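Give me the 3D structure for Curli production assembly/transport component CsgG.
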Amino acid sequence: MLTKKKSNQKLMTVLSFAMLQSCSALFRPPTEKQNSTMGEITPYTKIIKSLPDPKEKVVVAVYKFKDQTGQYKPSENGTNWSTAIPQGTTSILIKALEDSKWFMPIERENISDLLNERQIIRTTRQEYSASNPVLNPANSSASNTSQNNTIQSLPPLLYAGIILEGGIVSYDTNIMTGGLGARYFGIGGSSQYRQDNVTVYLRAVSTSTGKILKTVYTSKTLLFQSVTGNLFRYVDTERLLEADIGITKNEPVQLAVKEAIEKSVYSLIIEGVKDKIWDVEPSKKSKIDSIIAEYNKEEIINDNFRIDNRILDSRRGKFGIGVNAESNTIKGDYNNAVMKPGYKINAKYFINDHFNIELNFAKFELENTDIFKRKFSSTDLNLEFLLMPNDKFTPYLFGGLGYVGYSYSYFNHLKPKAQAGAGLEYLITNYLGLQAYGEYDFGFNDDWDGLVAGKRDDNILKFGLGLNFYFGKNNNSKFSKIKKN
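Predicted structure for Curli production assembly/transport component CsgG (485 residues):
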């Protein structure tokens, strides 16, 4: 009984320590008053600020850049009428345009306020100049005419050559959820996570022709995590001990929207330079060329990137060789078959991403306890099909024809056979794969074990584990086409 209590105490201590280690915020909870600070920055805030200077700033107008999703915050209890997206996205876009130094944004979101204020200024100046008795004591018509001519007029408003349109077009919740938990004798812990996704479209429109010069599209995932631990134990017949600890960490929606908008401004600048809509300062040409090269790499990766954080591409080379350790069991006419070790080497040639031709040679031993024992060799030709060749992890199927014979006189005792099997392969790198498989060899005769009896031919059941090495240029790989700087 004492040993069990000690083990429970040790388990509770370990779980508590692990929980505290993973939740550093528990050591410094935000219980004190915090002063206001400058706004947070994102990784793309620094990137757009470090862009090379343009040849000439572009005057742009932003009338509205709004939330077009109509999405409300998800709620487990009742209806939540708060919007999921911040409503000041036009201000976020204008700040990003200013930070980039490539654009000169002008006020258009509240243009009516600006025009009203300018009208107030004009009216006030006219009335003040004509009727002020202190500064304008003369009442003659000639004097009034002179004063009206000296009234300072307002400078004209800037007009934009390009209008920026678009908005937040989607906010998808729970695109990925998951968790992990365990409990033992009332002591447990759990972890949960959720991913959302926000999508931004931004387009540049020429004010002279109405032509859409360029449209860019960016997205940003948001991660929400929670870690909890709890203890629920009866320490006595009438006493219950209960304790809870936990922390939740949510990525701010405002920062995710800000980063997505800044990324769209960055993409608009780079795409505009590529299409010669605007240009960089001539002395900064080499720097923008390197930025464009990196941008092109990102485009290729993004074309093969899935929302579940998987990158799909042709991974394996054109050729492959492999070594495998196997266990072999004969299915013949005798009882008490024994599983015996063996090995196999193979070579592969890929027809395309899904199909390859495999040639292999194997040596192994077959045995029935105290009855039959003999060493064999086999040569097989298989067609292999990979179900998910663009993933790191894929199931595969294979089948083909081959020969099996006694190792000491292989060519004198060849027996034809057919084989089929299935396996799993995980790519440690694009050049090295770990595989596990099962195979069944179907014999066309019944004398592999030296006895012809019954209606069924002799067969072999195999299980294997091995490594595949891939080499040779893969012409289907999109990443191999990325030019290095």
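Confidence is low (pLDDT under 50) at residues 1-8, 17-22, 134-143. Let me know if you want a second pass.
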